Amino acid sequence: MAYENELHLAQLAVQRATLLTRRVYAAKSKGTLSKSDASPVTIGDFGAQALIIAAIKHAFPSDEVVGEEDADDLRTNEALRSQIWELVQEATLDDAEAEAVLGGPIKDVDGMLTALDAGRSAGGAKGRIWALDPIDGTKGFLRGGQYAVCLALMVDGEVVVGVLGCPNLPVDDKERLDTSIGADQTDAEGKGVLFSAVLGHGATSRPLTRGALAEGTTIKMKPLEDITQATFCESVEAGHSSHGDQAAIAGKLGITKESVRMDSQAKYASIARGAGDLYLRLPISKTYQEKIWDHAAGVVIVGEAGGTVTDAWGKKLDFSIGRTLSGNKGVVAAPKAIHPEVLKVVIEVLSSK
Ligand SMILES: Nc1ncnc2c1ncn2[C@@H]1O[C@H](COP(=O)(O)O)[C@@H](OP(=O)(O)O)[C@H]1O
Ligand SMILES: [Mg+2]
Ligand SMILES: [Mg+2]
Ligand SMILES: [Mg+2]
């Protein structure tokens, strides 16, 4: 299969990073800071990004990475830096072969800062570039909801590999859209799913482990004959997508079930495995540009599971422009057969505004 080594590296790197995020998740204090756009970032986000980039740079030294975070705050804040360094050192897979694929532990604090800062690529249409969201759905992470560790490889602007680690999704109860928040999420028992896809080679899911990869199974979207029976997913945060427009679209499609609100790319993962049918993300603001790391992995996973993902006007998401999807507005993800019907209504609702 194409990109076999890249896929394996990405799966193990994401799996290792979830050891760190789970530890932070269970801790009382998550070391939260506020970024310049007032959005939150935690010690988990920084630690996961450092671990994943160190692994990429070990295996593919000349690849670039577009990562959400950087080391600026750590360079000026010693307490934060040492807190994260401690976490990073503790996050090792308990399988020596798997750990060796990732290059083993990061050597020292400088190595951690260098790895974090290696996520500053401007992106673009040429060459091999990884898109990394070390914790997607940081607000979900903080509130005890869903979050995802997201990694994708783009080659010449096209997403060819996607991996999503979803520590709070149920392993077995595949049909359930897990939106529970709070206490029961901190119990990792029976939870934690690793999703992956390679362009042209299908999508799989497997339980997250602490060591070598578990065996994977193929995932497919649910066949949906009657659109009125659809379940649609949307963000928990009303500031991230328009709940009002999404409700109007569902209404026009004759959908009667209430929307399922879930943080992070766990939405893409959930519809890809047949828990839920649609994911709608209609823009709130005229100026906000979606970030490539919020979508790259999810888009290839849904595509390989039998879905179509476009923006709200039906354009393919263009990952080749830079760090943002500046050529697109919103996201509409649905099974291939019904995507045109959904898109028609999305455009009607947007055009009537
Ligand atoms: N105004 C906005 N519109 C759309 N997305 C936004 C937004 N402000 C922040 N986001 C993005 O929404 C992501 C979470 O998506 P969701 O609502 O589906 O959980 C955030 O990822 P992070 O949590 O990685 O920062 C952030 O990048
Ligand atoms: Mg963020
Ligand atoms: Mg994100
Ligand atoms: Mg993030």
Automatic annotation (TrEMBL):
<keyword id="KW-0378">Hydrolase</keyword>
<feature type="binding site">
    <location>
        <position position="133"/>
    </location>
    <ligand>
        <name>Mg(2+)</name>
    </ligand>
</feature>
<dbReference type="InterPro" id="IPR000760">
    <property type="entry name" value="Inositol_monophosphatase-like"/>
</dbReference>
<keyword id="KW-0460">Magnesium</keyword>
<feature type="binding site">
    <location>
        <position position="294"/>
    </location>
    <ligand>
        <name>Mg(2+)</name>
    </ligand>
</feature>
<keyword id="KW-0479">Metal-binding</keyword>
<dbReference type="InterPro" id="IPR051090">
    <property type="entry name" value="Inositol_monoP_superfamily"/>
</dbReference>
<dbReference type="GO" id="GO:0008441">
    <property type="term" value="F:3'(2'),5'-bisphosphate nucleotidase activity"/>
</dbReference>
<dbReference type="GO" id="GO:0016078">
    <property type="term" value="P:tRNA decay"/>
</dbReference>
<dbReference type="GO" id="GO:0000103">
    <property type="term" value="P:sulfate assimilation"/>
</dbReference>
<comment type="similarity">
    <text>Belongs to the inositol monophosphatase superfamily.</text>
</comment>
<protein>
    <recommendedName>
        <fullName>3'(2'),5'-bisphosphate nucleotidase</fullName>
        <ecNumber>3.1.3.7</ecNumber>
    </recommendedName>
</protein>
<dbReference type="Pfam" id="PF00459">
    <property type="entry name" value="Inositol_P"/>
</dbReference>
<dbReference type="GO" id="GO:0046854">
    <property type="term" value="P:phosphatidylinositol phosphate biosynthetic process"/>
</dbReference>
<dbReference type="GO" id="GO:0043647">
    <property type="term" value="P:inositol phosphate metabolic process"/>
</dbReference>
<feature type="binding site">
    <location>
        <position position="136"/>
    </location>
    <ligand>
        <name>Mg(2+)</name>
    </ligand>
</feature>
<dbReference type="InterPro" id="IPR020550">
    <property type="entry name" value="Inositol_monophosphatase_CS"/>
</dbReference>
<dbReference type="InterPro" id="IPR006239">
    <property type="entry name" value="DPNP"/>
</dbReference>
<dbReference type="InterPro" id="IPR020583">
    <property type="entry name" value="Inositol_monoP_metal-BS"/>
</dbReference>
<comment type="function">
    <text>Converts adenosine 3'-phosphate 5'-phosphosulfate (PAPS) to adenosine 5'-phosphosulfate (APS) and 3'(2')-phosphoadenosine 5'-phosphate (PAP) to AMP.</text>
</comment>
<feature type="binding site">
    <location>
        <position position="68"/>
    </location>
    <ligand>
        <name>Mg(2+)</name>
    </ligand>
</feature>
<feature type="binding site">
    <location>
        <position position="135"/>
    </location>
    <ligand>
        <name>Mg(2+)</name>
    </ligand>
</feature>
<dbReference type="GO" id="GO:0046872">
    <property type="term" value="F:metal ion binding"/>
</dbReference>
